[in-house]
């Protein structure tokens, strides 16, 4: 029996958006599904997920940004080109239909920074192959994206170690 894919959004100010998407990827890989992870606005490969994903045959991971892109005040033409390149890659991967799940990690942030237009993402989601699942992560998912999603989860920050001056921890935060 064939099932339709979903549109899943992980958003909010709390920790865990990428972590939830990666958990989904690992679960699907365990069942032999092919997954593509395209990281928008990330360019730091020394993360736990990057280290393990390179060893999992079912998961392909791509990055197009550089480390500084996370700070909105530093966004420039190079960053916009990186996001356009990532979106172009995402469209190609979706069209090829080799992957059952495509994770667009931090795409919501790219939308918030006006590096990509919501209309373009909506069109991409509406035209996706029926059996593919597309996962969008990042803070501040636009209303129009959430409206067409099948599943929207908002991560809410109740307490975070950063608030007490505790830095990011290897294996926990990256």
TrEMBL record:
The name this protein goes by in its record: Cob(I)yrinic acid a,c-diamide adenosyltransferase
Organism domain of life: Bacteria
Protein keywords: Transferase
Record NCBIfam families: cobA, PRK05986.1
Signal peptide: none
Keyword match Hydrolase: no
InterPro entries documented for this protein: CblAdoTrfase_CobA (IPR003724), P-loop_NTPase (IPR027417)
Record keyword Ubl conjugation present: no
SUPFAM superfamilies attached to this UniProt entry: P-loop containing nucleoside triphosphate hydrolases
GO molecular function: ATP binding; corrinoid adenosyltransferase activity
Pfam families in alphabetical order: CobA_CobO_BtuR (PF02572)
GO biological process, one term: cobalamin biosynthetic process
Gene3D superfamilies xref list: P-loop containing nucleotide triphosphate hydrolases
Organism: Candidatus Berkelbacteria bacterium CG1_02_42_45
């Amino acid at each position: 029996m064939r099932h339709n894919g979903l549109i899943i959004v992980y958003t909010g100010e709390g920790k865990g958006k990428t972590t939830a998407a990666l958990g989904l990827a690992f679960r699907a890989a365990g069942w032999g599904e092919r997954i593509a992870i395209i990281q928008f606005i990330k360019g730091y490969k020394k993360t736990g997920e990057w280290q393990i994903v390179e060893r999992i045959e079912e998961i392909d991971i791509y990055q197009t940004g550089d480390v500084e892109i996370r700070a909105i005040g530093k966004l420039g033409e190079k960053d916009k080109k990186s996001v356009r390149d990532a979106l172009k890659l995402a469209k190609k991967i979706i069209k090829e239909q080799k992957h059952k799940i495509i994770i667009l990690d931090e795409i919501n942030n790219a939308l918030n920074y006006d590096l990509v237009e919501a209309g373009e993402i909506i069109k991409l989601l509406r035209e996706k192959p029926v059996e593919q699942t597309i996962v969008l992560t990042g803070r501040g998912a636009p209303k129009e994206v959430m409206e067409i999603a099948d599943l929207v989860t908002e991560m809410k920050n109740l307490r975070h170690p950063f608030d007490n001056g505790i830095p990011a921890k290897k294996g926990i935060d990256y």
